[in-house]
Design a protein that fits this description.
Strand content: 25-35%
Strand order of the largest sheet: 1-2-3-7-8
Helix content: 10-25%
Distance between the termini: 21 Å
Number of strands: 9
Number of domains: 1
Radius of gyration: 16 Å
C-alpha cells in the first residue's frame, strides 16, 4: 500500500489512509477511492490477485466473491517481482470478482504482446488517475 501511495505522491496526488479498512485502502484529495492488491510472480509466470474471502456459517466455511464498493473508483494491482502496476477503473467490473490472473510482462518484446491482453492496457497506466487542482502541490 505504501509503495502505491509513493507512486501517487510522485504524480502530484495528496494521499490519505483511512482509519478503518473496509474496502478502500487509499483515497486522494480529488476524490479517488482506491483498493490495492499485491502479488509476486509465480512459477507459472502469472501474477494472481485474489479477492475472495471466507466466512463461517453454522455448519461450514463458505467462499464469497467480492463485489466492489460502489464508491470505489480504482483498483491498483502491484506486481512486486517486477515492480509493475495495473491501474484499473472499477467500472470495468460489473460482476463479483474472485481472482485476476495477469501474465507477467517479463521481456521487452513480450510487453507489446502483453498490451493486447485483457488487462495489458492498464499496465503502468497512471494517466487513468489524473491529478486535479485539489491534488496539485
Amino acid at each position: 500500500m505504501y509503495r502505491v501511495a509513493s507512486e501517487l505522491l510522485r504524480r502530484g496526488h495528496h494521499v490519505f489512509f483511512p482509519a478503518i479498512d473496509d474496502g478502500i485502502d487509499l483515497f486522494t484529495a480529488s476524490g479517488y477511492r482506491i483498493q490495492v492488491k499485491a502479488s509476486s510472480r509465480g512459477w507459472h509466470q502469472f501474477y494472481s490477485f485474489f479477492f475472495r474471502h471466507w466466512t463461517q456459517t453454522d455448519k461450514r466455511r463458505v467462499q464469497k466473491f467480492v463485489k466492489f464498493r460502489p464508491d470505489l473508483t480504482h483498483l491498483i494491482l502491484w506486481g512486486v517481482t517486477e515492480d509493475h502496476f495495473w491501474i484499473i477503473p472499477t467500472v470495468e467490473f460489473s460482476e463479483p470478482v474472485s481472482c485476476l490472473r495477469i501474465p507477467s510482462p517479463t521481456k521487452q518484446s513480450d510487453r507489446y504482446k502483453h498490451r493486447d491482453t485483457k488487462y495489458g492496457r492498464y499496465l503502468n497506466a497512471w494517466n487513468l488517475i489524473p491529478a486535479s487542482d485539489g491534488d496539485a502541490t
